[in-house]
Structures are given as C-alpha cells and as structure tokens.
Amino acid sequence: AKGSAEVSLNEAFAPVDALMLFQRDNHTQIPLNRWSTSDGSQTAVLAGMPNGPCTEIRAGGRSYSISPTDAAQHIRKAKLWRLGADEFLNANYITMPSSFGPPQAVLCRGARIRLEPVGSRGGGLSFALSTLWSALRPKRPAIRRLGEGAVYVRLPTFNWRNYHNFSETGWPSRQPGDRVLIVDLRNNEGGSEDYGLAILRGWIDEQAMVPLQDLGTQLNSSCLFAPLKWNYMILSSPAVLSDAKGYMQGLLDRMAQFYPPGCPRTVDTNPSKWSYPQRRFDPKPGAIRIVALVDSLCASDCELLTERLASLPEAIVAGANTFGVGQFIQPGYSVLPHTGLPFRIALGMSNFYGDSRSYDGYGLDVDIVVPKVDSLQDNQLRELAQIVEKLPRNSIRDHKNENQSER
Q1: Which of 3, 124, 217, 358 could cross-link to 36 by cystine, CB 3.0-4.6 Å?
Q2: CA 31, 36, 40: angle at the middle one, nearest 5?
C-alpha cells in the first residue's frame, strides 16, 4: 500500500500494538528492536485506608477503571517497612502497568486516596536501558556477611556472561549462627534460574521448594517449536554448556523428524498443584529465614525463582512487585521474512496465582513493601534482617482469600 515509501517501525507494527492492548504479553516482542513495547509493573502505597471498594486509578493524568473480576488490579494488604523503622506497619498497596504513567490516586467509594510510588518503574525504556547496561557490563554473583547473623547473596541476571568463570574466593560458608539470608534479585532480568540455584546450593533446601512441574503450564507446539527454542538456546548462551547438550540434541532430533502436512498445532496442559497465594511464613524454630528482595525489574526466571523461594515456609518476599513476565512463557526466537528483523514470541502460558488473573505488567505480590527498595545500603539491609529475624511465625497475613475481601 505504501509503495516505495519508508514505513516507521511503530507504523508498520501498529497491529501488534493493538494486540498487546487487548492482551499484555511481555515475552512477545515483534520486532525485538522495539523494547518500548515491554510493559512492566509499578507499585504504589495508598496514603490512607480505603473506606470501601476501589473502582478507579488515576495515573499519568488519566483515569483507569479497576475490574471487579481481575484480582491483579485490586488493592493488596501487606506489611510496610520504611528505612530506619524498627518494626513493620500495616499497609495497602496497588500495582499497575508502567504504561499507565506515574501513579497519582485511587478512587474508593467516592474518596480519592493519594498514591506513593515505590521504587523504580519497570516500563519499556527503563527495562531496555537496564538490559543494555547488563549486556555491556557483566555483573557477578556474590555472597557476604552483613553481620549480626545476616548473610547477603547477590544474584544478577541469569545469563552466561554474568556466571561464567567467576570466583568464589572469600565467600562465606553456612554457619550455625546464620539466622537471616537476604537473596537480592533486584534488576535481575531473568535467563535461566539454574544459575541462581547453583549459587544458593548449601544455603537453601532446594528439594523443599515447589517443583517446577507443579506450577502448571500450557504449551503450544508444532513443527516450529524446536527451531524457535533452538534459536533461544543459541542466543542465551554463547557457549553450549555440558548440561544443555542433551536438551539441544533433543531439539535437533525434533527438527529432523517427520511432521504431518500443514504443521498442525497441539496444546499440552500440565495442571497446577501449587499457586503463589498458598505461600505461608511458618519457619521452623532455628531455621534460617529467607528474604527474597525484588523490584520492578525482576523479570522472567527471576520471578520464577522468587515464586519457588516463596514456597519455602521460612521465606518472605520484600520490595516492590516484580516486572510481570510470566503469564506468557517459553520464548522462541526467529527473524521476520523480507526484513530480517529479529522477533521473540511466547509459546506457552502459566497461571502463577491459580485464578487466571492478569500477570504481565503486574508481577508477583510482595509480603513487605519497601518504598526505597532501589537504594538499600548494607546497614539498612542489616536492619531489615534484624526485624525479619524477630517476626513471629504466621505473622505475615494469610493469602488464601486475600483478594475476595478487597473487591
């Protein structure tokens, strides 16, 4: 229709934007060059107590209605920790996609309640800049003691560049006096959670975490699945690691097998046996307590590891809601015909909460909201650990019916 005229990326792919308005999908990027279409979460604390159901959000100078049937949009109850405080307070907070603009207020039974933003916003531009910075400057995992029974573990983005040939020299080992473990997952854009699990070995009981297969998935498959996943494997690791060779050989075998004409699509469903609202803070006496410290740039496999850590009875999640890249999963990569532009497309779905709420752009809820989560220093992390160490069992509220009461 345009003849020989040039077409901008935004104009050419406007139909993709329309699709994303209908259903947010942060794993699918068509084309990959347009990182601005990735729409992460942002978290905000209510300045007052709602006096009834909240029906509207004001953000970026516009109003958005709150769906009564989508639990992702509802007010949450959580604990709140402000820097320097020696205890947690009760709080209400809300999360929304960054494309809404800066949070301003919520409307609850005719009264507007001011919103206080938490941490950085996980929108397209900030996520793109963070990803670019990570690619240019590798970050290394680390473990160190903060003192007074607190141990700090830093897990950067789960890619080969960050975890290949790093040194564990000087890292502390588990000691009887260790009482709180802070697992820092801030600004972790995902990758393969196996990198993080390898660092945590000896500090957590991996066998006690919810198994990956119990989280439930729906996977779309056809003759295109194997080549799309092959491209993902090649892009995610510049060198084929030994533990990945078997999987990659399986992809090659699938590519070589016969497929019926028309490349028919199949859907494989693995029912969920555990969901995120089932988490409980109920540590055994003497067990090391775990704080998963997250922010709005914790994405994809960072969120997967957060959910699995949260399944442990001694773990709580603190910070701001994660980015929200998990409703649509199993990304595959290829290039668009004629243009050669790379793209990424999700090949499956998950249901972290078990109630089919929106997830992309909303992320995982936190048990403890930390307004200054992006700027925590060692002394503040140590203070947070001291308060968590004193928390009574079952003092973090029951999540079982958390959203029913907020509608």
Answers
A1: 124
A2: 115
The region that residue 330 occupies, defined by phi over 0 for left and psi between -120 and 50 for alpha, beta otherwise, is left
pLDDT in tens, 309-362: 999 999 999 999 999 999 999 999 999 998 899 999 999 999 999 999 999 999
148 CB-near residues (< 8 Å, 6+ apart): 382, 385, 386
CA atoms 153, 275, 97, 44: torsion sign: negative
Which tokens go with 160? 């080969």
The answer to whether the beta carbons of residues 191 and 159 sit under 8 Å apart is yes
Q: Residues 359, 124: contact at Cβ < 8 Å?
A: no
C-alpha distances (whole Å) from 378 to each of 88, 187, 348 are 19, 17, 39
Dihedral, CA of residue 1, residue 26, residue 162 and residue 321, to nearest 10? 150
CB 93 within 8 A of CB 78: yes
User: Are the CB atoms for 141 and 156 separated by under 8 Å?
Assistant: yes
Residue 34 has a pLDDT of 83
Backbone angles phi, psi at 209, to 5 degrees: -70, 155
Where residue 249 falls (left for φ over 0; alpha for ψ -120 to 50; beta otherwise) is: alpha
Distance (Å, whole) CA 374 – CA 119: 6
More confident residue, 134 or 106: 106
The C-alpha torsion from 295 through 297 and 301 to 305, rounded to 10°, is: -10
pLDDT of residue 4 exceeding 50, the answer is yes
